[in-house]
Structure formats: C-alpha cells, structure tokens
Amino acid sequence: MQSVIKISLFCLIAFFSLGQGIQYRVDLQRIQNDRVKIQVYLPKNLGNTFVYSFPKQVPGTYSNYDFGRYIQDFRAFKKDGTPLAIKQKNVNQFQIEQASLLDHLEYEVNDTWDSPEIQGEYIFEPAGTNIQADSMVAFNVHGFLGYVVGHEKLPVQITIDKPSHLYGSTSLVNTGKGNRDVFKTSNYQSLVDAPILYSVADTTSISFGETTILVSTYSPNHTISAMQIAENIRPLLIAQRNYLGGKLPVKRYAFLIVLSDHLKGGSFGALEHAQSSFYYLPEGTIDQLGQTIRDVCAHEFFHIVTPLSIHSEEIGDFDFINPKMSEHLWLYEGLTEYAAHHMQLKGHLIDANAFFRTIQEKKETMEMQYDPRVAFTTMSKQVLGKYKDQYANVYQKGALIGFGLDVTLRQLSQGKWNNQLLLQALAKEYGPSKSFKDPELFDKIIQITNQPALRDFFTDYVAGTKPLPIQTWLDQLGYIWDENQQEEAKTLGFDIQGLSINTETKRAIIQSKSAINALGQLMDIQEKDELVAINGLPTDIENFVLNTQKILQIIQPGDTLAWDVARKDAQGNYQTVHLKAPYFVIQQTSRQAIRPIKNPNKEQLDLRANWMQ
To answer: What single string gives the DSSP state of each residue in 340-352?
Structure first.
C-alpha cells in the first residue's frame, strides 16, 4: 500500500511539473468588499475553445444553487496581459475563445452568506461561503473554484495566500509554509469534497489509533471552544466506532464548526464530505448545545458510509451542471439519521425514553408537514423539482423507514441481520469507487440478506405509499404507542413541530391544519399563516425563539394571547391579521407516549435485547 501511495503522489507531482494539472491561486490577503480574487492556470492541451463552469449543484445538497451568480469580473488573459474573448453561456458557464493563447483566468467571488443584492435561491450556509477578512472565511471550494467541462478528472492544486492571523482547518494535507497554504488532490470532485475553515485557530485533535480527528471551531462570542466540543463528541466517536464494527473507516477526519448569533436563513445544520463535515449552528454554551452537536455530528459522520461508500451512479459520477437524482434518499439520509440516534442508544449515550421520544417526534412531524401520497423513491428522484418541499421528510419518514428496516431485518433473520451488518456488506460490495444502479438496489439487499420477505417492505413503504406500521414494529420490541397518555402543556396555539420557515419572508409558517390545537382554533389561526408578532414582540427568524419563550414563561390562564400573522388574500398578497383569545393550557398527547408493555413475551424480549445491545 505504501508503494502505491508513493507512486500516486509522484504522478501527481509529475502532472503539475508537466503543466497537465489545473492550478488555482487564491488571495485572502487582499480581500476587498468581502470579495476574493482568484487566478486559474490551465493546461495547454484543452483545445482552442473550452468552457469553464461553476457548479449548479453540489453533492449532499438537493437544490439548484447556481454558484456562478456570485462570480464577477470574469476575464481571460494572454501571457502579455492582453485580454482574450470570452462568452458567458449562462449564469454558471464561461466559454473561452482562442484558448491556445491563454495564460490564465481571473475573477472575483462574492460570499453567499452576506450578499443580499444577489437574487436567487437561498444557499444553505454549510454549502455556502463567507468572507470576513478580519475573522473568518468559510471556504467551500465549489463556491470559489470552477472546472473545465470535460476535464473534471484532471489533478488540481490550490495555493492560498492567507493573513497571518487566520489558520486553515481542513482534512487536506497542507504542503505549504508560512502564510501560503498548498493543497493537491487527484481531481476537482475530490477538492470540492474538502472544505477549508479559515479563522483564528481554535483547534484540537482526538486520536483513535487508526484515525486522527480534527475539531476546529469558530465562535464569534467565544461561548464554546474546540476542546469542549471534542470532549463532548469523544464518547460519540467511541460509540460510532463500535457501531461500525470496531474501526473508523477513515485515517483523517475534520469537524469544521461555525457558530452564529445571527441565523439569517432561519435554519442550521451541516454538510457531509468524505473526510470532513462543515457545520453552521446557533451560538451557545456546551451545556445548551451539547446534545444538538452530538446529534448533528453523529448524522454527518455516518455519511462516510452512505452515500460516500455506498451510492448510485448518479452520485458516483456527479454532474455539477445537470445533476441527476437517485431514488434512494431513504438510504443516504434516512438510514443515516436513524443510525445517528440508534448508535447513541446502543452506546448508552441516551436511554430508551429519549430514543423513542425522537421516534414519536419524527412521526408527528411527518404527519403534520409532509404529503403521505408521495412515494419516497418518487420524491427522491424528483427532489430538485416537483417535490422539493418534501425533501426534509428524509429526516422524519426516512429515519422511521430505517427503524422499521432494522427491526424487520432482525425479526426475519432471528437476529442474524440488521442495518449495521447490511451497510457493512453493501460497503464491501461497492465501496467509494464503485456505484450501484438505482433499480437494482432492492434486489441486491434481498440477495445479500437472503430475505425475500423484504420485497414487501420495499414495495409498500419505500417505493409505495402504505402507512408505516410503526405500532407493529414497536410491538415486536415489546413497546406500545399509547395515545391515551395525556399531559397538560403550555403552547402558543400550535405544535412547534408543525412549523417550517419561509426562506423568502424569513418568517415561521404554520405548515398544516393538524398542527393547530384547540387554543389556535379559538384564535382562528389558519394553515399557511406566517407568524409576525406575539403580544407585540417580533417573531421574525432572529427573534422567534427569544420572544416566544419569553411569552410562554410569563403568560397565565386568562391572560390575552395575541398573534399578528401574515395571511395571503385571494390575489396572493400578504395582509396582516390580528388574532387574540384568552389563554388556556391544553391537553395533548404525552411527549412520552411510547412505553414498554407490562408483560412482554420471550420473543419480544429477545428481539429487544438484540436491537439494543
């Protein structure tokens, strides 16, 4: 293995010495107006005309982002500085004429986090870019660097000149010195797969024998440190290593974590990569964020298995301009989300009550926010278009499918098969460099496990629209969903799980009628109302949590609860509607409605033990 690595590195160096690779030069030392200057030096054998393209979409995201929107002053130059003719084909692509005379390309990049003047789709921060010369640069490669169409497999080198006070955290190996960082990878996709976080250094490492884990944190108000996060996730990584068979499948991994006190888009989360993950989370202390960080890190880290080691051709040969979607988001996101919670249960990081509370929340959110008439495979295949608003169901129904598959596999095989063993077997069958064909996956799983009864599971619940038999799965483990368990609850007229965010208006929106409770019905809250103010306090994205919690703490039965909502009229224009009613505490289904049955039989106890141990 060592000789192979040496030969590969030698070949990579040889490519650059012969001028066959692509060289990017990035200037972070002279940032002006939150814009970064880029130079690109290309091989001489690209023909007389070629197209330099920025991604329309990137792996792990399910929206068309059009990163070319953030490029300005794109130019091509001869060696003597004379400009060459270029033609902008569309928002993402530039055609270079007389390319045989080209010395280099040059352009400037705006950041996606803070360019409100640029119209178009909101870019989820972990997939976007931030440029703050004095404090932090979120260098997601796809937001800064493009590629030559048809030559995506060329080796690449990126040289970044940076300010002395900023440190570049990444999973890549840095061969530069001083204020110059240099990174080399085998092709554009592998470079895109390795984001870099530039900030004042707050880093630490965790070693697990075969693997070194880097934790890098940017907290603008210094409320949390990399060391605190590392200690918080250390037990998680131990549990993940056990869950994955006793060994982490990477040599190097980087958790790049940005905390913000200003969630502009109204959401937070992370984006996975082969050897790293990039996080955008609300600022807070380790006590406030500890479990959130564990949950999100667990999910993203598991992506090193799916889809990074198990994926279809649509992902393995990703098209950055005309992406084709796989129908198996239930595998990539659903099983990953389930594993992130099941692993914590098996590793004794959470108890059964906490795990089943999560299952309950996911079922209720699925029912309040998403269309049960859409098959999961259909949604996945058309997630960029018709079913874009159904995507987030991967974290709800997708996780529940993962739970059901795990229980079903164990029950059918008398404990010999489970999700963990299935994923290990699929990773061995395929791996990072081999893709499966979308229509063949169900057959392959049935063949590997030798469980033909799984055909009905996939036909009914993944490729079909039959309601998930969650009570059946619970019963097999000796649990019951008791909806008769009631509890008193202070609410604001709706179930918080029934809210989503309108990214255009930056307001919370009542997603479905089922989310509105008796108090909300009395107030005449309606489906699709957008929340503007509560008792005179604003409830836009920045103030929603603070002001709703403030009202919940002080309001008492008999007091007046008043909502200002934005409601569309018949012409589709928003009108502000004032709603109010005397406040009262409602009765609702207990947040812990899933509980063990009193006298489970031996079969239930055996399956429960197999599932938990």
So the answer is: HHHHHHHTTSS-H
Residue ranges making up the domain that contains 43: 2-199
Q: Is 579 in contact with 523 (CB distance < 8 Å)?
A: yes
Torsion angles phi and psi, residue 147, rounded to 5: -145, 165
For residues 474 and 406, is the Cβ–Cβ distance under 8 A?
no
Asked if residue 400 lies in contact with residue 341, where contact means CB atoms within 8 angstroms, the answer is no
Instruction: Calculate the CA dihedral of residues 52, 57, 59, 62 and round it to 10 degrees.
Output: -170
Residue 244 has a pLDDT of: 87
pLDDT the model gives residue 17? 42
Per-residue model confidence (pLDDT) at position 266: 60
Alpha helices in 370-477 (DSSP H): 376-381, 397-412, 419-429, 441-449, 454-457, 470-476
CATH for 344: 1.10.390.10
**Which residue in 27, 153, 157, 50 sits closest to 98, CA to CA?**
50
Q: Which residues of 558-573 are buried (b: 16+ CB within 10 A; e: fewer)?
A: eeebbbbbbbeeeeee
Which pLDDT belongs to residue 575? 96
By the 8 A CB rule, do 273 and 265 touch?
Answer: no
Domain boundary among 304, 320, 344: 304
As a whole number of angstroms, the distance between CA 80 and CA 536 comes to 64
Contact 96, 141 (CB under 8 A): no
Identify the pLDDT of residue 13: 41
Structurally, how many domains does the chain consist of? 4
Judge contact between 62 and 76, C-beta under 8 A. no
* Chain center to CA of 534: 31
Do residue 35 and residue 98 come from a single domain? yes
Instruction: Determine the straight-line distance between the first and last CA of the chain, rounded to whole angstroms.
Output: 36
- Residue 426: what residue type? L
Cα separation of 160 and 131, whole Å? 14
Averaged pLDDT, groups of 10, the chain, 613 residues long = 38 46 96 94 89 92 91 95 94 93 96 90 92 94 96 95 96 96 95 96 90 95 95 93 86 94 75 92 91 91 85 88 91 94 94 96 93 96 92 95 98 95 93 91 96 97 97 97 89 91 87 93 96 95 88 95 95 95 92 92 96 90
